Amino acid sequence: MPRSWIVILKPVALAVVLPSAFCEVCVAQLGGFSAGTQIGQVTRDDLTEISGIAASRHNPGVLWIHNDRSRDRLYAVRTNGQFLATYNLGKDVNDFEDLAIGPGPLPEFEYLYCGDIGDNSATRSNIRVYRAPEPAVYAYFAANPPSENFPIVEKITLVYPDGSFNAEALMIDPLTGDLYIATKQPNLSRIYRAASSQLQDEATVTLSFVVELNFHEVSSGDISADGQEIILRQEDFARMWTRAPGESLAEVLAGIPIDIPVIGRPTEPNGEGVAFHGSGLGYYTISEGENPVIYFFATTGSPPLAVTRTLLPPGSTWRFSDGGMDQGTTWRNPSFADATWRTGPAQLGYGEDDEQTVVSFGADKDRKHVTTYFRTQFPVENPVPTGTLTLSAVFDDGIAVYLNGIEVLRRNLAPNAAFADAALASGSSLENLWQSFVITNLLRAGSNTMAVEVHRRSESEGDLSFDLQLQTGPGGGALQFSGPPRRVAGAGWALDFCGPVGATISVEGSANLDDWASLGSVILRNGAGSLTNLQPAGAPWNFYRLRQ
Questions:
Q1: CA–CA distances in Å: residue 331 to residues 211, 338, 339, 402, 473
Q2: Regarding beta strands 309-312 and 317-321, do their DSSP bridges make them parallel or antiparallel, or are they unpaired?
């Protein structure tokens, strides 16, 4: 049975009046930003034309950066500028100008969007965006920075509907997954959109025009992880728009922004990069030039409502059993005595030379242990039963996770898989990518126990990877519509709704309250979501409902 049902009337029969102070309250809560503080500096000779920056939401303290022009590489650095790793797209790039992080086709991944969107002469017949799931990156990489190829890279070709434009700003809306591009023109910027449903590998998408802004030569942009704030910048100034509940990005950008600080010339020459902190605590900037400085502008208002709390960070120390012994089921329980197990910090594994702790696979490389066990404990002072609990893991190939003795996650592994049972399929292409899942919140005050079993698919496969992190966030409240249905130019009717963060919500339509048709589903990544194109030809829905 569904856990929640809500029915509303046909769009023409609805009207909602918000109090006049509604938007003023939203703005007042968000506050402003402090002057920029130098927190780091990039000192590599091959990073002197940095054009884009994005702050990781899964790798704490990690920033992604890139050079502009025809280069197909992304670089991971710490917020202090220390170099960590190089990742190669392996694709043709004409002019790489901006970078964004956001959702994509698979809900368990956070994706890096790489914008090959520059066109100084405004002659390109199309532009391109490359999309890759974000890998795990660690501070200890600095001792021996790896150079890797992204295991999965998708190519999306974009075409403007009304000519060719130079652009240096790429943004992903975390609430919808839609992609936005802001053109770089004297005294104006035209905003274009590609819907998330159009962003398919090898697809060619005609962009939709959204709105024209009075903004001189936009060079970068970003949207906060909760979708509430949008920044556009150029060398010497930046502006921010604040989103009210239920507003589309087009509606937000049609409103009045506020000015926010950047360093500007001559200290920050050709400043082209801006990125929100992953939890909305401020934003970063960076510019071109030798030894570019990383600046951070901290929020001076109340902390954002969607700030997450890390309970178990990546790279934590785990106890592990790698001797090829069947541990039965008691090892999952908090009371299990694991003092004789080996210990070490993650990432744990073997065969890739990127591990912080190497585990054993046994005496025979062609008959490796199928199952390796991991356990750790972490304290929680004030657990919030209604809060969202998100588990992110790196694993190869199958995994089962137990929180305080109860199973909360199983992927690529048969139910009740025994010690010698292999994973259902190979996960080698995903083994160094963070995969995230909302799990049942079984936290308790005091010590909590996380127990994990990782199963190999093949005993002869050469490597194993494991790490896990746990974050808690706001619950998101009850499932409900945010307002009446609204018309969207070129996309029919749209519905906005909110509910528990991470919940998957199905939207259904009916003409008579008896027969219901599925209209699609949305994951509430930040406790809010939207669905458009709700009035296709031949389907005059009179009623809508949500269910979780």
A1: 58, 8, 12, 10, 28
A2: unpaired
Triad 169, 175, 180: Cα angle to 5°: 20
Q: What is the dihedral of CA 130, 135, 139, 140, to 10 degrees?
A: -120
Q: Domain boundaries in the chain?
A: 1-30+474-548, 32-300, 310-472
Identify which of 391, 392, 408 has the alpha carbon closest to the alpha carbon of residue 400. Answer: 408
Report how far apart, in Å, the C-alpha atoms of 532 and of each of 255, 388, 520, 528 are. Answer: 21, 26, 9, 14
List pLDDT tens digits, range 237-296.
Answer: 999 999 887 788 999 999 999 999 999 998 888 888 999 998 888 999 999 999 999 999
Whether 397 has a pLDDT exceeding 50, the answer reads yes
| Euclidean distance between CA atoms 172 and 99, whole angstroms | 10
Question: Structure pTM?
Answer: 0.83
For residues 427 and 457, is the Cβ–Cβ distance under 8 A?
Answer: yes
The fold for domain 310-472 equals Jelly Rolls (2.60.120)
The SS3 of residue 66 is: strand
Q: Where does 208-345 have alpha helices with state H?
A: 249-253
Nearest alpha carbon to residue 94 among 53, 135, 123: 123
User: For residue 267, what are the contacts with CB-CB under 8 A and spacing of at least 6?
Assistant: none
Q: Give the Cα separation of 239 and 230 in Å (integer).
A: 8
CATH number of the 32-300 domain: 2.120.10
Q: Which residues contact 490 (CB under 8 A, 6 or more apart)?
A: 208
